[in-house]
Amino acid sequence: MPLFQRLFLLPYNLLWLPALPAVLLRLLRRAYRQPAYLHHLQERFGHYCVRTPRPAIWVHAVSLGETRAAEPLVRALLERWPEHAVVLTHMTPTGRTASKDLFAGNNRVLRVYLPYDFGPFVTRFLRHFRPVFGIIMETELWPMLLATCQQRNVPVLLANARLSERSARRYARWPALARILFGALTATGAQSAADAARLTALGARRVNITGNIKFDVEPPSEILALGADFRARRGLRPTIFAASTREGEEEAILDAFIRASSSGNPETLLILTPRHPQRFDEVENLIRARGLTVSRRSAAPPDPSPIDTQVWLGDSMGEMFAYYAASDIALVGGSWQPFGGQNPIEACAVGTPILLGPHTFNFQRIALEAVEAGAAQRCNDIETALNAAFALLEDPAARTKMSEAGRAFAAANRGATARTIALLGELGLQDPTAP
Prior knowledge:
- By secondary structure, the chain is of the alpha/beta class.
- Helices cover 47% and strands 15% of the residues.
- The protein has 17 helices and 14 strands.
- The strands form two sheets. Strands 3-2-1-4-5-6-7 form a seven-stranded parallel sheet, sandwiched between helices. The chain has a seven-stranded parallel sheet with strand order 10-11-9-8-12-13-14.
């Protein structure tokens, strides 16, 4: 291990000892709202009950968004390396649950929590699963993990990598840390030329522009059928979907919806899905506090059709494609407050016109190109967005044009999974059993 790495990692490792009680306290606070955080607790310290007799490929997808994005890549890995298993690691219960749903019944996919970035925990993880190589989705980089992989000769690819200007500036303030993080990567598959330039400037090696794997996520046929069922149940009612909303956004959306529907079509249905499942009850209370009638996806039967239902609360996981397919227009959450926005690709893939807020730095290039393609419109605030949504409900031709543009935009950007697999091949990471 180079001297500068040892000089940085020794105090970093020692700081974990007094920090562990605070980390556990934070975990307990999260568990208060989402008890699943206490499940499989031993895995966060590098102790695992599951193992595989096959050689393992390790893929890290920190949470829900990264897990969904990893799906086409994991399936391609299983096909390309048929004698291997894939160990999917996560940091959140929502990510772990998503991987269980996505790969249900596939005994070649294991899912566990990645341990905290303390030397003994990381070493136990790598000794237990002995991955032949690792893939980290997007930018979830930990210094001890990467340094230990480098020391144990485990190649690591950063896939679907994106790095905003703001994040790049933060890393640039700590050049020693940036050298450890980005210099330890074997290769990087960047989403765009701008991402590639920023990653290279911070010390990443062998940076290739592979594109965004999220464009390769195919809507499952059963989920599209569910969306068609939702659409049939809500009948002719015009429908607006507020997708993956974050704390502080729902109140403004509901208030603007009330004002816009009073001057527009009062039969308009609002579908609302909070980003985090632990907030479902909280958001239902926000809806009821405004005198709006609400039903929930989890109700029996799950029915958005009653005319007296003004808001349908999408309290389910893994059904975003269905909600988009059931809606006439979508407001993309996380973009109305400075959270950076959520993924607009799913809406484009099923042809749902989208309205974006001003805060899309997590998907800056995609948001810009979606607007340029005519698949999306940018609005400065929620009030403007709801007024624009009601105007679009009265303009079928404009909606059709945006729908067609969205499908074309999604189709034109596919292929990142194949380019990532090709990059692995260029690194010499081949299946030793292949002819």
